[in-house]
User: Fold these one by one.
Assistant:
Number 1:
Amino acid sequence: MASISNLSAPAGKPADSGKENKKAKWDLRKQKTVRALEDAFFELTETKWIEDITVRDICDRALVRRATFYNHFADKYDFFAYVMNNVQRNTNLSLNANPKDITMAEYCYNICYSYYRNNQEHPKLVRRIYDSKSRQLYSDILMDQIREAIQTKARYDLEKGIRMEIQVDVLAGFIAGAIPNIMTAFEKKNLGETDAETLFSELRRIFERLCAPADPGRKP
């Protein structure tokens, strides 16, 4: 199958390569701008609380005009939501690159591990989030993302004839709420002497039981 970029233009309507090139340049410029803003935000969280960081702070550090910032984001909380969503989603994708080829239990385990790995890679940012007014916003972003991911994975499984024992919406909602809470408890050492290896061993067992596929012979 030809790629989109190699498809021919309809007869009588030659491809406008000038417009395509202009769009590609704009997309690249946008990516560079957003990346600069993200990098500036991460640098600022090293020394400032999230609620104390202003749009001006981010733009000054990134060398980006505020007007440009507002072309992409409504305000700093919209930007924060984008950054947190992006960080978590990228890690989820790296662990679940082929969601059709693994079980739902493994998929949920990987999501949980990605949360842990992000915490390890951005320890100062995580501490700032836990102790800031933005904690609930981050939890809401994460829960929405997990819920959506599990529902998408369930649709993949259903195409292969695999149906969950537990209703998917209930399973997705339960796990989406459980992961942030259990990982927060672990980070705050509210699970006694539990280490990471023990925690994830237990979580794997939990997911294997929760995400058991339904008996193929049983009617939905």
Note: The two ends are 38 Å apart (CA to CA).
Number 2:
Amino acid sequence: MSTREQVKSEINKLISASKESLGEIKAFAISEAWKILQLLTATVVQVIENIATDLAGEEKKQLAMELIGEFYDAIFDRIDLPILPSALESLLHEYIKRILMLLVDSAIDAMVATFKDVGEFDIATVATEGETKPQPVADCVDDFLKHITEIARVDK
């Protein structure tokens, strides 16, 4: 199995677990969707950095964008825009996705630039008694699932 396939497998597991974790929630406020996408971006980058060490930077970014887009399609059935009627929201769904994905694209660039600047490009590390070691992919996914349920359940 190639590293791309391994990463996709891990993110597909995350998508399935997210669907289960979020239960019956079908509509998300745009602010909730953006918060979840920010967490997802960090998680996907961590998974890619842990598994796909053989890919070039642009390949990693392309893979991240593809996987985040798949997550969006699987999880966000509807983005709730309080000022618009529901019928209009569904018509604008693809445009909302495009806007959010542009933000995700920029977030990936900013994240990578920041980690390069501070010399901590190995973002998937955990400090343990003065040393760092790679954070297991399962821990990244568990952290993500914990946080998305907190975000999605606020004010519900």
Note: Residues 122-133 have pLDDT under 50 and may be disordered.
Number 3:
Amino acid sequence: MDNAPWKIFHTHKGRIIIDVDGGITKDDVTVNPFPSEISHASLCDRGIVATWVEHELRLARMALLSLDEPMKDGVNKAELRLNRNTTMVENATWCHIVDAEPLALTAKDDKIIFALWTRGIYCIDSNDNEIWRLPLFDVDPKSPPRSNDVTSIHIIEEDVYVWTRGGKYRKISLHTGEILDEKTIGIDCDLEMVFSCSTRFLLSSKDGWVWEVENGEITVARKLRGTIQDAVFDEDDWRIISWREDVMLRGEAVPRDDLGVQLIKEDGVWNVIDNQGQSSPHMGLN
């Protein structure tokens, strides 16, 4: 592939690759429906729901792209400047203007959950009908700037878990939007990503610290060389891709020549897709 991969989905239509410039590759054909890189993307029952943000023009869009319809190239940035208020995403099932920057997005089946900066947390269905909305976390004037920004959202069975950069999390009913619980892990942190396996979470801070959290309690804390690119729980431990190394949370670290992008299980083996689009075993093991 011409550009480095950013996110890879395995679907009923085969492997879908999104690259760092917003290109989407399906059936070995790459198109650019968006005028810039994709900021968030997730799979729902009707296809890929994704967002793009053009900071220079202060524009953002959210769109659903069906995997059953051909994807098409959209406008470039020059064309967008001429039609900034009317341009949507080419051949999208639906698309609309987003009036604030999307902070996090996830989807499962027919539900899509996302958070917008200074606006709120929203649940829509895959037909773009709003189901519920909630305000963002209360701001503590003593907290660091933007520590209450949402950084990650997870749908786990019938619940939604929303995490902030400062380590707060909220448990929400997926179907009603009722807030079931709200807690903090009680440490100073600036979370960049949160990974989940059921109600077990792995938190990655921008300074390289990682924490495993179960039932609201920290069970493991460890400092890595860099932030986590991807992580999965393999039923025994967390497999992690960090800065030029593969890591087992409770074990050793192995150096990696190229930057890892995503962990994928292929034929029973956990492999790493790197920024060259190549696949190799995690921890160098077959």
Note: The chain has a mean pLDDT of 93.
